[in-house]
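The passage that follows is intended for readers who have already worked through the single-chain material. We present the inputs for a multi-component assembly, then the predicted structure in tokenized form, and finally a short commentary. You are encouraged to pause after the input and sketch how you expect the pieces to fit together before reading on.
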Amino acid sequence: MRALVGVKRVIDYAVKVRVKGDGSGVETAGVKMSMNPFCEIAVEEAVRLKEKGILKEIIAVSIGPAQAQETIRTALAMGADRGMHVKHDDILQPLAVAKLLKAVAEKEKPDMILLGKQAIDDDCNQTGQMLASLMGWPQATFASKVDVEGSNLTVVREIDGGLETIGMKLPAVITTDLRLNEPRYATLPNIMKAKKKKIDATDPAELGVDVSSKLQTVKVVEPPTRQAGGVVGSVQELMAKLKEKSLI
Amino acid sequence: ASTLVIAEHDNSALNAITRSAVTAASKLGGDVDLLVAGNNCDKVVEEAAKISGVKRVLKASAPHLERRLAEELEALILHAQNSNKYTHIMGASSACTKSVLPRVAAKLDVNQISEVIAIESEDTFVRPIYAGNALATVKSSDAVKVMTTRATSFDKAEMNGSASVEEISSAAVGASEWKSEELSKSDRPELTAANVIVAGGRGLKSSENFQMLYKFADKLGAAVGASRAAVDAGYMPNDAQIGQTGKVVAPDLYFAIGISGFTGAIQHLAGMKDSKTIVAINKDPDAPIFQVSDIGLVDDLFNVVPTMTEEIKK
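Having made your guess, compare it with the prediction:
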């Protein structure tokens, strides 16, 4: 079996983002970029499935500017076998991304597609579901445990208030949640090896996908900041204040 | 506008977040229909019909809809859309709506707008990006606007309406199969519905010490939550996590206890900064949490929490 894994290059999770003065977006120039943490979990899960002998090949796909190749290299260093770079310089909506991934999947014919449940930049949480719908495949979103037996997929999902287990036949789309696994760090020998792995390149035109969008960002602003309140001197003072506000 | 709202429920009771979605839908103007999809869910339908602002309740009751699997709901919603040509399809953001609405949007070849926190007009919406560190205003010229709304950003609609009920159905898809579920059982209020929340961080130092928070919370009828740091340390289960990757809450009163805000501050803040009153208790006077709290107390939580619990007894 083979898997397609989507990986997105985003502002590193530890960086405090700054909104641009002209309200057009957030500052990305000179900012540390990394693989989206949920995508790392998807790569890790695919590599584990390969280590168990379930997967034969893992193809890491990234859609983005030239630097998206670095993100693909990271996936290759973690254990993916080869890469596919869909070159595109502008920000894309999840619908366009899902259409591009579908076009790649139709060429590569994977048995499963693993994606992070959400990218930490636009926080959309849509691409996997859209892709499954466009492919006519079942989906297992927010996975915290994945089991593959033959063509049967069993997934434990994180739902509101607990966990749910669902089953389906492959091919399917899986989106990963935080608890699924702890991604490995790429070791130096593996980083060196990854440099020799192949990355193919394509673009939306070659894939025959129209990526224009009817959703426009009008402006991006800083959220209102909370004003710091005072500090009280004792528990008794705290309780008195809360009573005064009729909060307790 | 004419809007379809997807109701959130467990076949026996309506989840109150549905009422916040109805409030959001009402801001669009025009008629609001509410889809209750489930199995043996008559009680939910009864409740749903009382939500003010709902014109019609579409009831779809069938065994294949009992677990509200994404593929089944997708087919049903597309069927309702085909018959009624809504301009907007939406639901309060939940594991269920997040799973199904992007599927619906893709089939309609339109974008989905996630976690809307304000509705400026029929086509312009505000949503948080970067874990709430920026707010984006987006304008959609798609034929149908598909979106999820953040429950804590809209008040719950009143319950003095009287909607008509209409039955709809769709054939089973059978793409995936529900096997089991494991819900955390508790007599305490759910985090997203609680008026008061007591949240603990890594400062609690152990899972046993959270019992102290539970005692305090029970005095207040409060829910207990945790920062991601506390969850990652194994002190609390994942579903207690408050933050961008956990639950987003906005209670009247929020206690941040032993949550310094030094690590993962952005993540935690995104989940609780809309609380009306934030009380922070931390022994470090420089803890960043004091920059967002309304009332701060610099003291050792292991002294403060038992004293507060005692004080409430009086």
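Commentary: The first strand of chain B starts at residue 2 and ends at 6. Chain B has two domains: 2-167, 191-313. How closely did your sketch match?
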